[in-house]
Specification:
Blueprint: E1 2-7, E2 17-22, H1 31-36, E3 46-49, E4 54-58, H2 64-79, E5 85-90, H3 95-105, E6 123-128, H4 133-157, H5 165-179, E7 182-186, H6 188-193, H7 197-202, E8 211-217, E9 224-236, H8 245-248, H9 256-271, E10 275-286, E11 298-300, E12 306-308, H10 316-330, E13 336-341, H11 345-351, E14 355-360, H12 363-376, E15 379-382, H13 387-390, E16 400-401, H14 410-419, E17 430-434, E18 440-441, E19 451-452, H15 457-466
Parallel strand pairs: 1-6, 2-4, 2-5, 5-6, 9-10, 9-13, 12-16, 13-17, 14-15
Antiparallel strand pairs: 3-4, 7-8, 8-10, 11-12, 14-17, 18-19
Helix pairs in contact: 2-3, 3-4, 4-9, 5-9, 9-15, 10-14, 12-15
The structure holds ligand BES and zinc ion (ZN) (2 copies).
Length: 468
């Protein structure tokens, strides 16, 4: 879908259809027909009037969510017709929600369909009363943001046979080239040489070599330094603690954290922020075989911490442990260090499939992250650590266990595990994002179609934009 923003009265714009987003039908010319069609101005209600060539969509609130869902609903209706152009009146204050909602709602993924829809690209025209520099900037930035989310979705949706650690590394190289970032990629030899035995062990039974990906955006005027670390499990079978069949499907999405930060990096230079941004991704495949790491093994991470493996399905934290150590060893004077991972099923159980769990030692920072998420159109909530849960990852044989000794609070105990790999000076600068719920969509919601959602991308970009 092509989006265009024009400074024109909508009546003077030629298009096949007009979209009207409304919270009431009281003053609408077609009120009677709409009533007869039982149309109510409620979220996700939509009707196409072929005679007047209008699409009516309801919305209940004046917020990002409601507007983005409304335009996505309209766009889905529009794309289901043979009409090729549509127009809509927009205002500066709803431009971001409408631009992003339209592009996120129009997303489709047909890589694996033998019959592709080969239609002429559709055009959606936004008519604004006054086109200022500021509105133009909002519009262009929103297009970039949606493009980054959709690129993330493409990666997540690509199947494990086509997207394995080397593919992820190649994707990172491509992004680096396009966006003018520096890119360093290390294979297993490096992991071995640098004592990254936790990450190395997880990937040992895979026929694909694990990859440590490091992208850097370093503008000349950088005033802050942000490090993003992502879990890039291109497949998580569970390893020897094998997942049951029903839980294994969708585990191509276990790379979502890594994909999200690659998505962020794909547009970072376009935002022209005075911030140095690093993305470190641990790209690994967790498989079974004679070479697999085992429950009972003790692994030594890069910072010397020894980990008793009690469950090979708690692999994400092992990969992240070494990636967090690597990031802090290689990058000095960090202002923020954020990690992103589809880390625990417990997070999905605890807060639902729409919301990310935000954790860390710095409550103020965690709250800020949540508020950026909400501003950007994502759902997130803080999960607090406590002294009792901290005791549950103790081990009899090693420094810590990779799972807790309690059945409860699994997302928090996973966060507490990660905290062991944050050095003293970074304790308050670290935030962990458990995106296990929203990263992959099995029942479409809002403007998210089936598959990868790109969770984490918009909230991170919003946070970066707001750094003082
Ligand atoms: N990748 C999974 C977590 C996950 C579950 C993500 C569902 C998305 C949807 C992770 O590696 C895992 O398997 N975690 C275990 C941890 C357990 C063994 C302590 C889990 O959540 O069951
Ligand atoms: Zn797992
Ligand atoms: Zn996993």
């Amino acid at each position: 879908m092509i989006l265009n923003l024009v400074e024109k009265n909508i009546k003077k714009v030629n298009a096949d259809l007009e979209i009207i987003i409304t919270d009431s039908i009281k003053n609408i010319k077609e009120k009677e027909i709409l009533e007869n069609l039982s149309f109510e101005a409620k979220d996700e209600a939509v009707v196409l009037l072929p005679e007047s060539k209008k699409i009516f969509v309801g919305h209940e609130a004046q917020d990002y969510d409601s507007l983005a869902i409304a335009i996505a609903t309209a766009v889905k209706k529009f794309t289901s017709t043979k009409f090729t152009s549509a127009k809509i009146v927009v205002e500066k204050q709803n431009l971001k929600a409408l631009t992003e909602g339209a592009l996120l709602g129009a997303y489709t993924f047909d890589k694996y369909k033998s019959e592709k829809k080969e239609e002429k690209e559709k055009e959606l025209i936004f008519c604004i009363e006054k086109l200022t520099k500021a509105t133009k900037k909002i519009f262009e930035e929103s297009i970039e943001i949606a493009t980054a989310v959709n690129r993330t979705r493409d990666m997540v949706n690509t199947v494990p046979e086509d997207f394995y650690p080397e593919t992820m590394a190649n994707e990172a190289r491509k992004i680096a080239k396009e966006a003018n970032l520096s890119c360093t990629i290390h294979g297993e030899k490096y992991l071995e040489k640098n004592g990254m035995n936790a990450m190395l062990s997880v990937g040992r039974a895979s026929r694909h070599e694990s990859q440590l990906i490091h992208l850097t955006y370093k503008p000349k005027d950088a005033k802050k330094k942000v490090v993003l670390v992502g879990k890039g499990l291109t497949y998580d079978s569970g390893g020897l603690s094998l997942k049951p069949a029903d839980f294994m499907t969708t585990m191509k999405s276990d790379k979502s954290g890594g994909c999200a930060i690659l998505g962020v990096m794909s547009i970072i230079s376009k935002l022209e922020l005075p911030i140095e941004v690093h993305a470190v991704v641990g790209a690994v495949e967790n498989m079974i075989g004679g070479d697999a790491y085992k429950p009972d093994d003790v692994l030594k991470a890069k910072n010397g911490t020894t980990i008793e493996v009690k469950n090979t399905d708690a692999e994400g934290r092992l990969v992240l442990a070494d990636c967090l150590c690597y990031a802090q060893d290689e990058i000095k004077d960090i202002d923020y260090i954020f990690d992103y991972a589809t880390l625990t099923g417990a997070c999905v159980v605890g807060v639902g499939e729409y919301t990310s769990g935000i954790m860390g030692n710095n409550n103020e920072l965690a709250n800020e992250v949540v508020s950026c998420a909400h501003k950007a159109g994502e759902y997130a909530t803080v999960l607090h650590f406590n002294r009792f849960l901290k005791k549950t990852i103790k081990s009899e044989v090693a420094d810590i266990c990779n799972i807790a000794n309690t059945r409860y609070g699994g997302s928090i105990t996973a966060g507490i595990f990660l905290e062991k790999f944050i050095s003293k000076e970074n304790k308050e600068k670290w935030v962990h994002h458990d995106i296990a719920g929203p990263a992959y969509v099995e029942k479409p919601w809002g403007y998210n179609p089936f598959g990868g959602s790109g969770a984490g991308v918009r909230m991170t970009l919003e946070f970066l934009k707001n750094i003082k």
